[in-house]
């Protein structure tokens, strides 16, 4: 196989993107070279800017190029007494798109995982503790992933909240909206029974 | 929605890649920031290098950063009397991977399409003509796509070859290997009947 070395290294570099295998990478490289070199250069510039300048918010640990992210800097959000704890910055994006929540966030950037050597300080729980102690927070909403590690992390943080007499809540687990009962797995279904709510008239 | 402006522009820049929608672009951006900033910077560098330095081979018009691509510069290939005409550089990649062909190539970078105003000179047929006139070529293999435009382009080039008394051949159309007859469309099946070959013992 004899192709241009530069093209070959572009194709292999594109494979760092998640979900991009050799065929997609090849298609992307040829597409950019043949149809849209300007967009390729623009992408290179944006990648450089983002990788070099985006750091973590000092208050909530999400991605931002400033000291404090736009959500933490928002005055209306600062006056909220709710704090939502999530595992990754992408979760904030998903929650914000629902328009359901208007409080502050805290990003763990991971979850507790003793087997991998990830303890409380690795997921910023010391910072969270100091925020719980110093800020006026009434409720901590634990929106970690519904996995064993996510649940364990949520429990750990709930205990921490208890020390400061702060209410800790966990997001509901149950049947996804629009799904069919017979297609839902047993664990989810049993969660939806345990978490059943009274219908008020 | 309040996310970092730099992150937002990275996500929108990633959408220039073929097959990448808003969700994939978001996943890619978060993945690079969270797990692999080095790979992101490397990708930016490779994109810049490739977009700025890759041009077209003077002989066959494929992508290369040199004057003449590695295939055209190969002495063994130069002594071959076959020339394969393809629509895009990616086609060369596909043909090379079969290991079936060891001649030279010519890349049209498109196909004849009078409705879109794409005539013979736009797909480099003047350069091809001068190569047919000056080089010792015995056979031109027309490997354009099996579409209406690809077929029309192949016919046009076949007529050109005829002027120079060069044999023009078209790659076989037929049932794909490993496919099932009942799943093959009618046009392909009729092509496979027209192009049937005698079995020699």
UniProtKB/TrEMBL annotation, chains A, B:
Listed SUPFAM superfamilies: Recombination protein RecR
Gene3D superfamilies linked to this entry: 3.40.1360.10, 6.10.250.240, RecR Domain 1
GO molecular function, one term: zinc ion binding
InterPro entries, A to Z: DNA_Rcmb_RecR, Rcmb_RecR, Rcmb_RecR_Znf, TOPRIM_dom, TOPRIM_RecR
Keywords for this protein: DNA damage, DNA recombination, DNA repair, Metal-binding, Zinc, Zinc-finger
Role of this protein: May play a role in DNA repair. It seems to be involved in an RecBC-independent recombinational process of DNA repair. It may act with RecF and RecO.
Family to which the UniProt record says this protein belongs: Belongs to the RecR family.
Residue span, Toprim domain: 81-176
Highest rank taxon of the organism: Bacteria
Family annotation (Pfam families): RecR_C (PF21175), RecR_HhH (PF21176), RecR_ZnF (PF02132), Toprim_4 (PF13662)
GO biological process: DNA recombination; DNA repair
HAMAP family listed in its UniProt record: RecR
Protein name: Recombination protein RecR
Native source species: Gilliamella apis
ZnF endpoints (C4-type): 57-72
């Amino acid at each position: 196989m004899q192709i241009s070395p530069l093209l070959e290294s572009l194709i292999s570099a594109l494979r760092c993107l998640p979900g991009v295998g050799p065929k997609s990478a090849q298609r992307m490289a040829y597409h950019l070279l043949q149809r849209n070199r300007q967009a390729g250069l623009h992408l290179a510039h944006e990648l450089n800017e983002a990788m070099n300048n985006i750091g973590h918010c000092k208050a909530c640990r999400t991605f931002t190029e400033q000291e404090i992210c736009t959500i933490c800097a928002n005055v209306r959000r600062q006056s909220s007494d709710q704090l939502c704890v999530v595992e990754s910055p992408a979760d904030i994006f998903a929650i914000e798109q629902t328009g359901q929540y208007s409080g502050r966030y805290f990003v763990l950037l991971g979850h507790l995982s003793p087997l991998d050597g990830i303890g409380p300080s690795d997921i910023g729980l010391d910072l969270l503790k100091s925020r719980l102690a110093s800020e006026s927070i009434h409720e901590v909403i634990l929106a970690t992933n519904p996995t064993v590690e996510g649940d364990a992390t949520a429990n750990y943080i709930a205990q921490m909240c208890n020390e400061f007499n702060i209410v800790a809540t966990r997001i509901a687990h149950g049947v996804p909206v629009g799904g069919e009962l017979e297609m839902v797995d047993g664990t989810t279904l049993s969660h939806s029974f345990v978490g059943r709510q009274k219908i008020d008239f």
